[in-house]
Amino acid sequence: MISLREFLGAGAVCRLMAATTVGTALMVGSAAAQDAVTLRVASFIPAQGFLNVAVVQPYLEKVEAASNGTLKFDFFPGGTLGRAPAQQLSLVQSGTTDMAVVMPAYTPGAFEDYNVTQLPNTAPTTAAASVGAWEAFDKGLLPQPEGVKVLGIVTTANNVLHTQPPVAQLSDMAGLKIRAAGSIQSAAVAALGGSVIGNIAGPEIAEGMSRNLLDGTLMDWIGIREFRVDRLAENHLEIDFGRLVLMLAINQASFDKLPQAAKDALTSNGGRVYAEAGGKAFDDAVDTYRSEYVAQGHKAVSLSEDETKQVDAALAKVVDDWVAETDGREALLEVYRAGVQSAE
Q1: Does residue 273 sit in helix, strand or coil?
Q2: Domain boundaries 160-242+301-343, CATH class
Q3: Is 296 exposed, middle or buried (0-12, 13-18, 19+ CB in 10 A)?
Q4: Degrees (nearest 5) of the Cα angle 100, 130, 48?
């Protein structure tokens, strides 16, 4: 019997074997691509919003690259799957989306302890605040939402006071109509002499200022651009009024069904890694935005040493009052602060 090598010749056999190997590799690659799970990711933030562009999408790209071809994402920004911020957690829990950006402060339910990051003067940077929040969650001191797995936590940049009238000293805050969101911000504004205006959504702030219904607002340096507050408020008092938590959550059942490589990619790029990377993105952006505004003629004011001591004492009481409201918050604040220090 004539062998294949004798019939075709040695060179032809080698070429045939090489072609077979390539064909097999292509089939395997095609199968892997077909087996990739596609997860839907929802964000109520507009497509070009800072969190999406600088934090969430880079995370998704890293996860997809690390998943060994097992994972892909369909991203739905701008509230495509549900516009209301308070709706986002239920979208994940119901399986309407696999993943979503969730803001606990805007979500009904027992998530008040996430407001630990809103406490003024408790973290020097957003990276530190984000790590502190993750450490508190990881140690079980922040509630786990039912039916989801929390992949990562990052906070917004710290809120400062942005006003139309100049505020060069603490007494200039007296009587100013200042938009504040939530009980902690309201308490802080009141403690410093401002008149609290609540129940105004972010997109309505600029209009309120244009109609002289507001003199100013608490917001971070990034938010004033996204909500067009910067066109009206050119005076900025740099007091740390705290930050808001932004959670990236996945439906637990969706996560459980994933291949191990996909699970590993999601978790290894989440947690403290996500907090550090996301927090740094916010910190870098704040440095850039603030410098640009000052170069344009905006006034960024820091108080005198004596007035800073007055502010610190007033805001420390806001912190103490919040801790005293509910059992367990003293331990929560201690762990949060330890996490903050570990990131500095």
Answers
A1: helix
A2: alpha beta
A3: exposed
A4: 45
